[in-house]
Design goal:
Length: 555
Amino acid sequence: MKYLRLLSFALSFFPFHHINSQVVDSTFGEPFSYGQPQNVYIPGITACDFDERDDRSYSMLFLDDGRIILAGHTAWDGESDFAFARLLPDGTYDQTAGPDGEVRLDLGYQNDSCLAAVRYQSDKVLMGGCVSLPGQTGYANLLVRTDLDGNLDTSFGNQGQVIIDLPGFREMVTKILPLPGGKIIIAGNVYYGPSYQYPDSTFIFIGRLHPGGQVDSTFGINGFLYQRFSNCNSTLLGDIEIYDDGSVLITGGGYHPYPGIYAGEIVCDPSITLCRYLPDGEPDPGFGFNGVVTLPFTAGRGNALSIYEDGRVLVSGVTKNFSVEPNPIITLIARLLPNGTLDSTFSNDGIFRQYEPGAFGLGSDPVSITITGQDIFVAYHDDPVGSHLTFGILCLNGNGQLNTDFGNSGIFSYYNSYPLTSYALKEMRLSPDKQKLYFGGWYTKLLHKNMMVSRLNISDMNPTAVVERPGTNGMKIYPNPLREGIFYVDLPGLTTLEDFSLCIRDVAGRAILFRDGQFAGHQNKIDASLLANGVYFVELSNRNECYTGKLLVQR
């Protein structure tokens, strides 16, 4: 049996922060759902795998009874379908939705991909993305409306579907926002040129639909408006928000057009830009210059928006530091007054900058921003142009400074030590009771993708204790305290050899040592010679049982 001291190895090379005060909520999740091997116990996360396909979640929806829907698509052998997974409030599978809570929507096309979803009114789900139509190259916008069980709502469009083929080579819906009266704002990208980086090739589009899915021609020009930020780069949507009066705010930057990942190459280093439109789609003259605000000295892109009740705006994104080689990518958060000028009371003259190095030292990529009380939470994953080995949160106070009561001096970071695993975080959502934060997206393990969701408690900014989960037959760890390199584990109720996974975690919840193998009822020998002095939690688990005990190393 071979030990995998993966995190210890990673820490010697990867200079990123780790959690201190907060850990993922171990009372949440489907603990044995995390890919192969199936008997690995990981608390705080639910993974959803649609029959060994590649699955991605782009949106999280909360139902009135606390259940959660993860919406996205599932892909296999060059085909894809819309899909969602429905979970119970504790993160376990809602088996009433289908096996393991999974609902796959076969809409009759070879390739249809869901890139956004929202809850519509009280009892419907709107899902949007793109579809490859028979006999055509490229793809067109596709919208689908279902009930909460995934059944098509035949009152919407053509038997539950709406296809909008704009005058471009490729289009995709990446954001959907229902309006109070039932109308629907859709937004995304339309792609014209020979390559997405070619000047003038890609535009943001915003459209408005009637409740039944018909285009609302009173918005913009015949229902749509188009926006480009610069003359030398593609322009694609990062985020969109709606004010109470129906005005529309957007930000974005240069990305690969499908499925919306950053390309990493900026031709002319455009600054982060925001645009605001009146409810009819006209540029808002009361915001910036004719509806456009460009943040100075911010070569990069905007990823996420949030609007205060008083009309102030938060935007998060990334920018490059050209005074340092090789130009590290820096997380940026700016606060604007309602007219678009920078709020000088926030951070450093309105802009917060933080270099979060990530696993490979290339920087971190914000994907979502939310406000609760006086705190600002910004979710990120690392390495904007490559694999995302970690994900986490920056927490700022109302003045734009890191809140040191949260995480490790204002930063929570999650890292799992299992090999060849990376994370794509797509959304962070605040729970309806404003006590928890949910992370949604997918993880890739051995090149296979699964939807995932995790939960973090924020109601108490003080250190969160690791929850012990004792097995039904107990666990004995000795010698304890450990003063040498070897300790033993007994499982008194075990009469035969059983396959278990062993995981040793520190008080922050990080996996320090992992081992698969057979364990007996008595005298299972564990080499802990690499563990530093401190308190650790020992987990032995398979699909049926989980034993947890505490170990003190005191040499």
